[in-house]
Amino acid sequence: MAIKKITLLAFTLLSLKDAVFAQTDWGWDWKDSSKVAVKDKPQFNQFLNNQFPYPAKPNSQAELAFGLGYASVIGDLNSGLGGVLSVSYRKALGHNFSYRYNFSTSIATGKPSDYQASATIGAKKYTNYAQSLGADLVFAINPASYYRGNPKTSFYAFAGMSIQGVSVTKDGKSFRGYNNFLYSGDGLITEGFNKTSFVVSAPALNGGVGVAFKINDKINLGLEQRFIYTQNDFFDGSNGTPDNASAAGAVPRTSSQILKIRDRDYFSFTSVKLNINIGDASKKVQPLWWINPNNFVYSELNTPKHMKLPKVVLPDADKDGVTDQFDLQPNTPAGAPVDSHGVAKDTDGDGVLDYKDKEPLTSQKCFPVNNDGIGTCPESACCKEIKDLLASGAFVKQGDKKEVLTNLPTIQFKNKANSLTKQDEELLSSIAKKLNENPDAKIKLIGYGASSKAAQQLSWERVNAIKKHLVEKLGISENRIIFTYGLEGDANTVDIQGTTEEGPSTVPAPHPNLKGAAKATSKKR
Questions:
Q1: How many Å apart are CA 270 and CA 340, to the nearest integer?
Q2: Tell me: the pLDDT tens digits for 410-447?
Q3: Which of 180, 190, 422, 434 has its CA 20 to 30 A from that of 454?
Q4: What's the rounded Cα separation, in Å, for the pair 232 and 128?
Q5: What residues are paired with 274 via a beta bridge?
């Protein structure tokens, strides 16, 4: 019957546990200094300033518990009805371990079996009155978890020591037990042993298990099983010796005389407990066995508030301002204009990308364009005149004037020749002399011939022959020469002009497959 009652009680508590509200907070705020003890303030400050990796342990509330339940003595006789009242004080040492002081008062009854009550044995029914005072070390099994927040159910085990004050009556008569009994002829204890009925058993070992179900941050309900292992064999009013044994000679304790004989008796208390958190909640957190110690770690991983995170640097291999993660063209040349997806721009839509286009805003009426993005529309007279003036250095900002060479010759080629004559070399020597006399001056080689791919290639070869002679034969620095070719004009001439422009000194051949197609004439032509 008692087992059925305990089972029903456990089922009720489990149902109540499922009805509690889900917890949403982490239990405490690591930045709240009011919940940290004075002795732990140095660690708290070091952690706050990222000088120490572990937060300080917060002050926690204690737990005051009241218990009511079933009590029994497990001894030589059968146990009957009983009850226990208890009160305890529990305080956390950490998230798993805590200590607890416990006081209980109990009444336990029992009676012999029919055989034990027979004339042969003479055992009597008993009533045990006991008080117990003890201390336990409690281990909470489940506060730390990697997969949830604070626990709503706390399983625990405990062990400790206690002392008992016990009073026992047999058939309503006071009784005090010793290891050896003096018996009167009628089976009652001699009057000398009826003067007191109090027995102290110390020390005794106690232990057990329990489970608590959280109702809210203040209250939880529990179910606990406690055993107290005593050093006494008389708490059930019998040590297995027949009560009708004479003082002169006791009847031997054999299985034919008594059903069971135990060397020690022990108490069993099964209790329902009301547990109340005590202490100032504004300065203390809940008891630590209700707080998951991993809360801080996982909250930081989810939403960092304390970690020192390095500045995020997104890779941009081509340095175009669009991170590689979103760059659809991750290898554009340095400085090339790109759109928001990292793709090189072609503003005028002529098929020549802006970073290659020498005329990036060519009108569509001038399409198609050449390899440099220059359209087929002839240059207007005014624009050409301005261009020539700019090339000659006529328009220079005041205070920003640079050396500009003037009166430079034009090199004439005959037929499809691409080599220099003696006369051409003499002209180039005079140009080199002027360049050496004006170290900041620059020149521009302007080749013509835009009518066909062969004409463009021949124009390039003629300009390249002049540049090569100036650099390799006459020692002029290549960066002082601007290389242009394939313009509209007299295809057999290469103009040499002084300039302040910036431009390429080396340009790849436009149609290398046509290189040398025109027969070079002799230098004697």
A1: 74
A2: 898 988 888 899 999 988 999 999 999 899 899 999 99
A3: 422
A4: 13
A5: 66, 221
302 phi, psi to nearest 5 deg: -75, -45
| pLDDT the model gives residue 120 | 63
User: Residue ranges of the alpha helices (H) in 393-452?
Assistant: 422-437
pLDDT > 70: percent of the chain: 77
Which secondary structure element, helix H or strand E, spans residue 100, and what is its range? strand 97-111
Report the C-alpha gap between 67 and 86 in whole angstroms: 5
Which residue from 266, 268, 271 is spatially nearest to 236, judged by alpha carbons?
Answer: 266
Residues in the chain: 525
Strands 442-448 and 481-487: parallel
Rounded Cα–Cα distance for residues 405 and 305 (Å): 67
| pLDDT, position 524 | 40
Question: Is 370 in contact with 358 (CB distance < 8 Å)?
Answer: no
Amino acid at 501: E
- What's the rounded Cα separation, in Å, for the pair 437 and 432? 9
Q: Residues 492, 497, 498, CA angle at the centre, nearest 5°?
A: 165
Pairing status of strand 153-170 against strand 198-214: antiparallel
Residue with tokens 């626990």: 151
Q: Which of 203, 181, 206 is nearest to 192 (CA)?
A: 181
Q: Diameter of the chain by CA atoms?
A: 162
Nearest of 16, 346, 366 to residue 212 by alpha carbon: 16
